[in-house]
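Example S7 (structure tokens).
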């Protein structure tokens, strides 16, 4: 590999998802591009696209992809541990409690109760972003588990 890992997420509402991943998760917009149908079609992407590259602070990139020629209308199917394929995106954060506190107002919903659990000396929390993609948040510092948290 020559560059950090990138992942593409097809979205229905580009502005909403950009705000979520930048304002709450901590990514920053690196660049925007319109991919013409003459490139997107032959590349197997279905036609014209708008792509926003979000740099993850620790490296890597999340590409938000908005199809222009065939807009996405249906929400993502609910996550299931038995479903094959890509299951979730993992983000390592410095202050899990601060991020978890912002998620509901940003349109995310928790997948677990309690919200934060301890696993192998780390604290983790699973959420569904505003469009149904599952996000795992990991705080490697461990730390104290307060209300709404479990070992």
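Recovered sequence:
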């Amino acid at each position: 590999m020559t560059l950090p890992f990138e992942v593409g997420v097809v979205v229905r509402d580009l502005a909403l998802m950009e705000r979520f991943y930048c304002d709450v998760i901590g990514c920053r917009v690196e660049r925007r591009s319109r991919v013409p149908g003459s490139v997107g079609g032959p590349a197997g992407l279905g036609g014209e696209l708008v792509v926003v590259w979000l740099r993850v602070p620790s490296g890597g990139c999340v590409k938000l992809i908005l199809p222009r020629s065939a807009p996405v209308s249906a929400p993502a199917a609910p996550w299931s541990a038995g479903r094959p394929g890509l299951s979730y995106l993992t983000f390592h954060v410095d202050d899990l409690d601060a991020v978890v506190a912002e998620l509901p107002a940003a349109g995310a919903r928790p997948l677990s109760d309690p919200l934060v659990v301890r696993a192998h000396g780390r604290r983790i929390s699973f959420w569904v972003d505003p469009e149904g993609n599952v996000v795992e948040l990991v705080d490697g510092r461990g730390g104290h588990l307060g209300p709404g948290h479990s070992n």
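Notes on this example. The mean pLDDT is 86.
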